[in-house]
Amino acid sequence: MSSGSVSNNESESPGKKGTPPQVVANDSAAEHSDDGLHHSPKRSRFRLRRSPEPQSSAEEDLAQLAGEVDEDRILESRLRTRKKSKSTFQQNLEKLKRRKMQVKGKGNIEQEDEGQEEEDASDDDDDPKPFKGSKPSSGLQDDDSDLEQSDTYNSSDFIVEDEASTSVQLPAEFSMETHQDISHQFKKVFQFFVHVAAQPSRKRANFMEDRMQDEQYFSVPLQIVRRKLAGIRDSLVASSVWRPEFKKSLEKYPGFDLMYLDFAVPSCDACHLGGRMSTLLGRLSDSPYNRFGFEALPPRRSDKNELKEFHLGRFCARRTQVYHEFSHWEQSLFHSILREIDVLHDKGSLKSFHTVAFFGGKKPPEDLRDADGLCDWLDERKVIDIEWQKLKKMMESAQHLELGDKAGETGD
């Protein structure tokens, strides 16, 4: 069969399927066919080309339809394409998202900003109003003055401006000074009482009251020691069956004497428990005093009617004596200091000998109103330690009351 017949058959057979692919043979195959050689040619490579009939047919249909319609009946589009309007919240949200996507590069951001400017320019006529209750987010656009003003107004409602750093001074009761040992607090109390004793007797009450209100260096330690000793007295010393009148009398009079009775007396004036026998007599003495300055108060008519003698049993007598010591420890300490200063006030005492801690030790100041100098002189003589040991012994006696009662220690 000739090469011409083969090509004809190939062109006819695919025609039955619509749009046949065109076969393009190489130049070598064409040369062999022209020479009319009868040997079989080499298998040629070919490519399939799609026919552009569907696209051309659509254009032909449109052209045919346009030809059938009269030109005067065709209306040109006078309206722009409809775009769905977005609320202010959605627009601000999109702007915020674009700012967060700055990793794409400066070029992409500039293109987006230009496109957004075009959209904003086209939507100027029908710019939607923000809905009620909406609040613009901060930092969306630097050049949007309205958003900046509203954001500043909203942020001022809850953002507090940083003020100058000022140190807050806590009350003295919450300072580290209150956590020091009670022995250290007692030294400050001793110093405070020296300042009070150095004043004239008529000025001591006002001086002490003023220092308690104005000088925390002295008032806070005194309050701490008072609270400490009052807690021990009320919890370990006082009995729950004691009457308030009995405790009030013990707190009022600074003097207390305890003596044995010649014979036992039924009942106890402290606890009033049935079946108790009193073998001791407690007697209150001295005049009441002012808690500021520790000066004696003038007697009153009501003092004569108060009971100052009590029949006490062995256990109540011991507790009554310790309770009285706890109630007047300040007055006892003050008079111990005052006796030391009164010796210096005696006529000619400074010109004669005076007590020192050791040879060449500190001497009392020439000006007896120098409270700090007096305190240093007493401290070197160990007077502060002696008074602290007295107070410490009193606190220990409160913790060993039951042991002392079992041993039969009543004390005089």
From TrEMBL:
Compositional bias (Acidic residues): 58-71, 110-127
Biased composition (Basic and acidic residues): 29-38
Bias type Low complexity, positions: 1-12
Pfam families on file: DUF4211
A GO cellular-component term linked to this record: nucleus
DUF4211 domain ranges (all copies): 157-291
Biased composition (Basic residues): 39-49
Region feature Disordered, mapped onto this chain: 1-151
Protein name per Swiss-Prot or TrEMBL: DUF4211 domain-containing protein
Organism annotation: Gymnopilus junonius (Spectacular rustgill mushroom)
Taxonomy of the source species: Eukaryota, Fungi, Dikarya, Basidiomycota, Agaricomycotina
